[in-house]
Structures are given as structure tokens and as C-alpha cells.
What does this fold into?
Amino acid sequence: MNIKNKIKITVNGKQMLIIPKLSIRNLITKLKLPVNKIAIELNKKIIDKKRISKIQLKKGDKIEIVHFIGGG
It folds into this structure.
């Protein structure tokens, strides 16, 4: 798929090109992040992880992903 068929989103402050209608779950998989150890914000709203397969990303969306790391 060439660049003309992709849309631009922002993930943690960095622009990224993705295929249209990519789900948040597919984005998380593409980024190789563990779903159970992250929090996701889409356009300044916290997303319920139960819905990430149903939410499709659109041009200009802004996503913030926080990865939890244990320690002590």
C-alpha cells in the first residue's frame, strides 16, 4: 500500500502513517505493546480496553499510550 492510501495520526507526540480504519487493537499489536499493561487515551479521552477492537482510527487522531512498569 502506498503513502497516498494511508492516514496520519499522532502516537505519543510522534506522527505515524497507518492504513485507514485500523483499530486501536491492531495499532497496539503493531507497536508490540502488552494490552494488559497499558492505558490508552484517544483525543484526550480514556478508552475502555474492552472497546479497542471496535474503535477505528481516523485521520488526525491523537493517541497517548502509557505503559506500566513494575518496580520497587
